[in-house]
Amino acid sequence: MPMSHESWPNMPDPVQQTLKKVLAQIRKPLDGQIDAVILYGSLAREEYIEGHSNINLLIILKSCSLKNLQHCCRLSERWKKDGVVAPLVLTNQEFSQSFQLFPIEYFEMKENHVLLDGRDPFLNLHVDEHLLAQHSQRELSGNLLRVRQRFIEGHGRVEAIPALLSLSLTALLPALRGVCRALGHPSNDTSLNFLKNLPQVLQLNEPVFLEVLEMKQGSRTPGKLSLPDLFIRYVQGLELVISRVGQELESV
């Protein structure tokens, strides 16, 4: 059964009103085609920042026919002004089969999601710890390569560093959570608390990832002169994480 709005996470009233409106608009053209509507992302993790965060939806349909996708196109266009990004649309069969291909993304959704309509597809979804560890380790290394590449693409401009590091951290967090889960460490907490505990879990020297999160959330404003140092420490921290994770997984 879908959860009532009283059971939703603690969220601003305007966002609850948006979700109720969105659900009503989904049900009307897609009546009989909906298996589940899932809320995931920052709002489901109770980390939503009004005016900055997006609202993310997973819609599972009986059929991803052209007609149904066209309905989703029209609905998505209406939702833009409310911060609802284009939904992820799958069939139930695709959902079940693709978990092995995207274990990090599905693990994130399984840990933090809200059922808005239909049946919860995550209830019987098993997380393969070994597969999760492999994919997480690969994503960590890929993140490091992308950070370096984007720094070069941006010609090393200091003013580009905040956006570069914020984007990197957004992609990095799910991989870090996946690694911690695979190693048997707690991972289902707010990003703030998770990163506060990360240095102890992975034996890191400094909380540079926490600094970048605080910068991203607006609670920390590093000066222009300190940004190159922040970038260097972030890259070094990422290199150290990759090394630590490799050592930990070899010993498991």
Topology:
Blueprint (H helix, E strand, L loop, with lengths): L12 H15 L6 E7 L15 E6 L4 H14 L8 E4 H7 L4 H9 L1 E6 L10 H25 L7 H22 L8 H12 L5 H10 L9 H25 L1
Parallel strand pairs: 2-3
Antiparallel strand pairs: 1-2, 1-4
Give the structure's gist in a few sentences.
55% of the residues lie in helices and 9% in strands. The chain contains nine helices and four strands.
Would you kindly provide a written description of the structure presented here, covering whatever features stand out?
The protein has a four-stranded mixed sheet. The model is unreliable at 1-6 (pLDDT under 50). The chain has helices at residues 13-27, 66-79, 92-98, 103-111, 129-153, 161-182, 191-202, 208-217, 227-251, and strands spanning 34-40, 56-61, 88-91, 113-118. The N and C termini lie far apart (40 Å). Helix 6 crosses helix 8 (208-217). Helices cover 55% and strands 9% of the residues. It has two domains: 5-118, Beta Polymerase, domain 2 (2-Layer Sandwich), CATH 3.30.460; 129-251, Four Helix Bundle (Hemerythrin (Met), subunit A), CATH 1.20.120. The chain is built from nine helices and four strands, in the order αββαβααβααααα. The chain is of the alpha+beta class and 252 residues long.
Descriptive key words:
4-stranded mixed β-sheet; Four Helix Bundle (Hemerythrin (Met), subunit A); alpha+beta; 9 helices; 2 domains; globular; Beta Polymerase, domain 2; disordered N terminus; 252 residues
